[in-house]
Design brief:
Chain lengths: 310, 398
């Protein structure tokens, strides 16, 4: 993406590193007062109603908790949306080979529970010539030795970051909302776990922590965002955030970086020179279940040999 | 005051049968409480629900009980508007049933949510209730409102009885007036909870709300017919046959409408045969060889049909043995149809076409039985408590 973001990213990284080191020291020094932490988290206000100072306190508390639990410094930040940015995502169905590397990169980056297994990306194997719309004919459990399999194509689905998200409308507690940069987030400290949003999402993008999430200590990604990949609680909902901890610092989401065939595109919809705008302007794009009017900010297209003639 | 003490005392008096019943109910409750404690600490992973089918038996029970709660108006309307004496006398029991049913609804939601301690987040002012957007937030409002209104009516009437006075219509009338639209609204809003979900074609149809009302107005009153006979049998409280048969009429009409609406739904889905009909196909015939719900829904259809045919013949309807059989059939029929037959297939196939077959596991069944046992305990205790006052009032009347 643009240069300004890149330098910003470095600064943040250094800062988080220092912060992390400091917490590491603190975590060893101060044993966590469990009862206090319980009441503080129980009485915590809605994230959007917290003052800057409150947020700092909450982040500190969480960093403490996580650092103790995972026995290494964990940083939790709450980087704000950038101005004039609305993220968009592009997926080239013609390129995707169904290797699921994006799925696993996402799991690692975003600290999804390994057991029970949670995956934010679902790759659907579709038979060529079958109805594209009728997802019922798709298979998400394919497991051949080699991909792609002849006669099939693949369609990865994750949160479509709908511009008009039915999940947000459904939530009785306002525990999930759309940020200014178009990312739909969940406050894991506010979600009551009613799972109404899961019923409301037309893309199967929301996942529930049916048990306490389980992440091997050594595999925990310690660089986290409050609204993104910080470790979750039992009994709350989670979902793809376009790697909010990366994208807001000008980096690509992990799935984009992991894709071996470059099927995944990402960028600022408001920037006429961004990659995503190039895709939208040069390919015939479509969005999943458009008739539902959820207005996804996630575009599918068939890239190879399918560009519009100038 | 003396009556209050009498009421409390009466709770502890009864036949051996009463003690045994209560012991059994408390036993079920205790087992369920332990099971819930385990679910609370390990998480909802102990249920059969998963991401694909994210609501199951608990919410199915909730949906059914909203119907039972709403049905209290069925007694209130003729009693107060038409002053139908035989029903007027038992309105109090209807209100008790409404209060118990709403409490059970709230409990079923409580055992279903992942973070019950955070329930206050959905309240106005102290929490961050999502109004007007969320149908669930509206449901929280109307259910609690309905509970408050019925409690108010109940407490007021009992208070008057306790002081040996009849209730004052000038005070009761406004409460009753509000409770009627509230009863309709709890069921309509609960129907909208489903009908508003465009991600689930099976729910996203206009007929859900009228069908909910129709099925509520048959299963709720049918349950009352059975409960009132139990009361009559086990106490010396008189409930006239006339009142019960009048309620049976309502049940018959409502069941007719319910069956008609179901047929229109089946016609539309199967005739047009689009991909949106997949859930209905799954429910009635199975999909891809997966047929978990098929025997259930056909059982429900058979029960409702037999009950309806029985109720159509006055000779069967006006005899208690056959009336009771019909009522039992249709209660179970509606229970299956609105629970497993509406909530579960809405999620099958899931949003991305996966078919995850759900049936409640033992953990869910035990906890649900616990809620039902608690409901029964609440009703019996309320009834026992009110009994001396009610008795006295009835004697004074006759
Ligand atoms: S895809 Fe689902 S979770 Fe994501 S914004 Fe849309 S409705 Fe919400
Ligand atoms: S599960 Fe959480 S985020 Fe989803 S609707 Fe319920 S409270 Fe909102």
């Amino acid at each position: 993406m643009n240069k300004k973001n890149k330098s910003g990213e470095k600064k943040i990284d250094r800062r988080t590193f220092l912060k992390g080191a400091a917490i590491g020291a603190a975590a060893v020094a101060l044993p966590l007062d469990k009862a206090d932490a319980f009441w503080e988290s129980f009485l915590q206000k809605h994230f959007t109603e917290l003052s800057e100072a409150d947020i700092a306190k909450v982040l500190k508390r969480l960093e403490n908790e996580y650092s103790q639990e995972y026995k290494k410094p964990v940083s939790v930040n709450a980087t704000k949306p950038q101005e004039n940015v609305i993220y968009g995502y592009g997926l080239d169905i013609a390129r995707c080979i169904g290797c699921r590397r994006c799925v696993h990169a996402c799991v690692t980056e975003n600290n999804q529970s390994r057991d029970p297994e949670i995956q934010w990306i679902t790759v659907l194997k579709m038979k060529k010539g079958e109805k594209l719309y009728d997802l019922e004919k798709s298979d998400r459990y394919y497991n051949p030795d080699l991909v792609p399999e002849p006669g099939y194509f693949y369609m990865p689905v994750q949160c479509q970051q709908c511009a008009d998200p039915p999940c947000v409308k459904a939530c009785p507690a306002t525990a999930t909302w759309k940020e200014k940069d178009g990312i739909v987030v969940v406050d894991y400290n506010w979600c009551i776990g009613c799972r109404y949003c899961m019923a409301a999402c037309p893309y199967g993008a929301r996942h529930f922590n049916w048990a306490k999430p389980n992440i091997p200590v050594e595999e925990l990604n310690a660089n986290t965002h409050y609204l993104g990949n910080r470790p979750r609680y039992k009994g709350v909902v989670e979902k793809c955030t376009f790697c909010i901890q990366r994208s807001r610092n000008g980096r690509y989401p992990a799935c984009v970086e992991a894709c071996p065939v470059g099927a995944r595109k990402f960028g600022n919809l408001l920037d006429p020179n961004s990659e995503i705008r190039y895709c939208i302007e040069n390919y015939r794009v479509f969005r999943l279940k458009e008739e539902l009017n959820t207005k996804p900010q996630f575009y599918y297209f068939f890239g190879v040999g399918n560009r519009r003639k100038p | 005051m003396i009556h209050f003490i009498k009421g409390i005392k009466h709770i502890f008096e009864g036949h051996t049968r009463y003690y045994i019943t209560m012991a059994v109910l408390f036993g079920i409750l205790a087992v369920a409480a332990l099971t819930y404690a385990n679910q609370y600490s390990k998480g909802l992973i102990l249920t059969a629900m998963r991401d694909q089918v994210s609501w199951g038996f608990y919410i199915a029970n909730f949906t059914f009980l909203v119907g039972v709660a709403a049905a209290a108006v069925i007694l209130v309307i003729p009693a107060y508007i038409y002053s139908f004496k035989p029903i007027k006398e038992i309105v109090l029991f209807g209100e008790m049933m409404a209060v118990v049913a709403v409490s059970m609804c709230i409990l079923f939601v409580a055992v279903d949510i992942g973070q019950p301690l955070r329930a206050w987040h959905t309240l106005p002012v102290i929490g961050k209730m999502n109004l007007p957007g969320s149908m669930m937030a509206w449901d929280v409002l109307v259910l609690n409102g309905y509970l408050a209104i019925n409690l108010l009516a109940l407490v007021y009437v009992l208070y008057q009885y306790a002081h040996n006075r009849d209730y004052n219509m000038k005070i009761l009338w406004p409460i009753v007036l509000i409770s009627i639209p509230f009863a309709i609204s709890i069921h309509t809003v609960t129907a909208f909870l489903y009908a508003s979900i465009k991600a689930r074609p099976m729910w996203n149809i206009a007929v859900v709300a009228p069908r909910f009302i129709a099925s509520a107005f048959c299963s709720g009153p049918a349950l009352m017919i059975l409960v009132f006979q139990l009361i009559r049998k086990n106490t010396d409280i008189k409930i006239e046959d006339k009142a019960l048969f009048k309620i049976a009429d309502v049940v018959t009409y409502a069941l007719a409408i319910n069956i008609f609406l179901l047929l229109t739904e089946i016609f539309t889905d199967f005739y047009s045969n689009t991909v949106h009909g997949a859930s209905m196909h799954y429910l009635f015939f199975g999909l891809d060889g997966k047929t978990n719900l098929v025997p259930w829904i056909w059982t429900a259809v058979a029960m409702n049909t037999v009950a309806f045919v029985m109720l159509l013949f006055p000779s069967l309807k006006n005899r208690f043995l056959t009336l009771n059989i019909a009522c039992a059939l249709l209660i179970v029929g509606v229970y299956i149809e609105k629970g497993l037959g509406l909530v579960v297939p809405g999620f099958i196939p899931d949003a991305l076409g996966d078919i995850y077959e759900y049936s409640p596991n033992i953990n869910e069944i035990v906890i649900a039985s616990g809620v039902w046992a608690l409901g029964a305990i609440m009703f019996i205790l309320l009834f026992k408590f009110a009994y001396p006052w009610f008795k006295k009032h009835q004697q004074a009347d006759h």
